[in-house]
Amino acid sequence: MIRKGILICFILLLISTSLLFASEMYTESDLDNLQSGERIEALLYLADKLTEEEPQKAYTLAQEAFELTEGSDHVPEHIDAINTLGYITLFLHDFEASINYFQSAYTLSIENEDDIGAAFSKNGYGLIWMTIDDYTNALKNFEKALELFELHDHTQGKAYVLNNIGTVYESLGSYNESLDHYLKALRLHEEVENLEEIAVTYNNIASINTKLGNQEDAFKYYLQSLEINEVLNKKNAIADLLNNLGSFFYQFGYADEALSYFNASLELSESIESDSKMATSYANIALVYEVYNDYDRAFENYSTALSLYEHVQDAEGMISVQNNLGTLYNKLEEYETALQYHQAALNLSKEVQYKDGLKSSLQNIANDYQMLGDYQNANRYLILYTQLKDALQNDEVAAKFAESQTLYETEKKNEQIEVQQQEIAERERRARILVMIISAITAFLLIIAGLAILIAKERAKSEKLLLNILPKKIATTLKKTGKAESESFENVTVYFSDIVGFTNASSGLDPAYLISELNDMFTLFDDIMEYHQCERIKTIGDAYMAVCGMPNPNENHAENIIKASRDILAALSKRNDSSEIQWRIRIGIHSGKVTGGVVGIKKYIYDVFGDTINTASRMESNSEAMRINVSERTYDITNSTFQFIKREPMEIKGKGMFQMYFLDHEILPVLTTGIEETSK
Predict the structure, then answer these.
(1) Calpha distance 122→165 (Å, rounded)
(2) Which ranges of 16-94 would DSSP assign to H, the alpha helix?
(3) Are β-strands 644-646 and 585-599 bridged in parallel, bridged antiparallel, or unpaired?
């Protein structure tokens, strides 16, 4: 995982208030020579500019501006001061204080008919809603802010809000809609020549183009943002951008270019003596050396990064590097050392209550134990990981609900300020509520009458759903005893397949259409596997995994899997004859010992573990399009039944030289199973 520098942010640098009357640049030294209106103007200007780098100082300056304008004739400036305090406390994640400041500013703006002050308050509400992932209410507030800014043709205000709307659409995955709003914001920033915000928006546009796969445009906008920051001599922003550019090249597989930018960021970070940015660069550089398989330099850079994170007491950075070091040792098959680093990351995550670190560490430790052949501990840590993930999700939902309730109550007060309700209207509303309550009680009594039937139907549905999730034998055991112990199986054959060139083929497809295609193919595969007494275990993206011989033993496990694989190729070939997209898969098969068990408590999943699984995966990755690649173990079991083509021995990662065989078969136009292709 790349640990990026602070992005030239989507949100936090978009929180400038309505200080557009600041006609000149101020410095802190100017404050001693300024009085009255000019001092207020300078205080708010500096508070705005220092929000990201020195938020506590920014708060002190804004508080002084608030006190100077309170009870004076500087009402617009007083509203600006309150809004600025709202944005600073939002940056500090003090949501309760932020909500109170924006409410106060909004109330005062309505009372004094200050549409611009009200617009910035609405923009602030939108940012809070966006922070707690309620994008519907975020858009509602941003659109209201945009309406008020447009009413007064407030160019810079419109630009800020358009940038924020672009961020919402980016979070929702609507990248084209997001890009459209970023470009509109850019034109407005250019109109008023706001270089800092132009650089921010260039970075946003670069990020969107990266997600859309438009590498050339993404690189161009990153460079334009970099050029402006160099003109402004914003070294901190430049260091972050260089890291972002390195991450951009790393993401698209250009390791040399990524290393060049990470090194440039490191050099600049050293010049400004920023240990935290240096640590980020060293950690990213280590990732590139991993790509080069230069593990000595990877270890060296990770160690330096870890020392720097320890020096600046950045626990999250330390945990990230410890996890990366453990993963690197795991890659080198030094599983005991890998376990030590992952355990250290877990212990520190517990100490600082870092949720993401806990999840990553538990998952990594489970993998270490699996590679060590300690399947009992592997299963135990996977269960802990699943339990933690569910618990964190519930805690996050509860926290966001509490924050949203506070915000709802605040906005309700604002609505009461805008619309004075008549007493008769309130009585009518209460009467309607009473009628609704009586109607609801009546409906509830009617529902009770049919509840028994519905419970029976839902129970039948839940049992059917359980059989869709788990093998029948496991589901039956789970219903009877409430648990299902892990079990080892000596004679199992494992099937792996994935779609050749899936990433490139799917990049331009509509997500709904792509999911429909995968569902169509995997349903077809499921039918074939079931016909041949095989069990689908799971799918991950375009990868499909199945077994035969567990949880019910089957002496023909290898033969059944090969027959199913042959029929899958036949079915896919037939489907391709009439399909808009020609999907082609690789298949890998291996036989051996496997451990299976139920993972999770709230969300059950039946999963399998063991070296046999890893070897089957290697067979798939070393297969070819529309061919079935089997290991020597599977060949020994089935060579009297099927014809094979012996391959030249190959070096297999983690296995050494390995003998493999292609099934010698012909794709038949009619399936031996008689299963028809699912209709589209």
Answers:
(1) 13
(2) 36-50, 55-69, 75-91
(3) unpaired
First to last CA, the chain: 38
Structure tokens at 311: 């020096």
The whole-angstrom separation of Cα 180 and Cα 73 is 41
Q: Is 31 exposed, middle or buried (0-12, 13-18, 19+ CB in 10 A)?
A: middle
The rounded distance, in Å, linking the Cα atoms of 416 and 414 is: 5
Query: Which residues, including other chains, have CB under 8 Å from residue 595's CB and lie 6 or more apart?
Result: 375, 379, 486, 487, 488, 489, 608, 609, 610
And the tokens for 594? 């496997």
Q: pTM of the predicted model, to two decimals?
A: 0.51
Task: With beta carbons less than 8 A apart as the criterion, state whether 667 and 573 touch.
Answer: yes
pLDDT in tens, 566-589: 999 999 999 998 888 889 999 999
Phi, psi at 627, each rounded to 5°: -130, 160
Taking only the tens place, the pLDDT of each residue in 334-388 is 999 999 999 999 899 888 878 788 888 888 888 989 999 988 888 888 888 777 7
Nearest to 355 by CA among 396, 323, 322: 396
Contact 547, 538 (CB under 8 A): no
Q: How far apart are CA 406 and CA 396, in angstroms?
A: 16
Residue 39, Cα to own-chain centre: how many angstroms?
44
DSSP class of residue 667 equals: -
pLDDT of residue 300: 95
What per-residue string of b and e applies to 10-28 under the rule 16 or more CB within 10 Å gives b?
bebbbbbbbbeeeeeebee
Residue among 378, 374, 375, 376 at smallest CA distance from 386: 378
Greatest CA separation found in the chain? 97
Residue 398's Cβ-count burial label (10 Å; 0-12, 13-18, 19+) is exposed
Q: Take residue 620 and report the two structure tokens written for it.
A: 């798939």
**What is the C-alpha separation between 200 and 166, in angstroms, rounded?**
13
> Quick one: which H or E segment has residue 346?
helix 335-352
Q: How far apart are CA 55 and CA 88, in angstroms?
A: 7
Q: Which amino acid is at 617?
A: S
Helix 115-131 vs helix 95-111: crossing angle, to nearest 10: 160
Half-sphere exposure of 363 (CA within 13 A, CB side): 12
Give the type of residue at 603: K
Contacts of 437 (CB under 8 A, 6+ apart): none
Residues 504, 509, 511, 516: what is their CA dihedral angle, to the nearest 10 degrees?
A: -100
Read off the amino acid at residue 89. Answer: T
Dist. CA 7–CA 280, nearest whole Å = 12
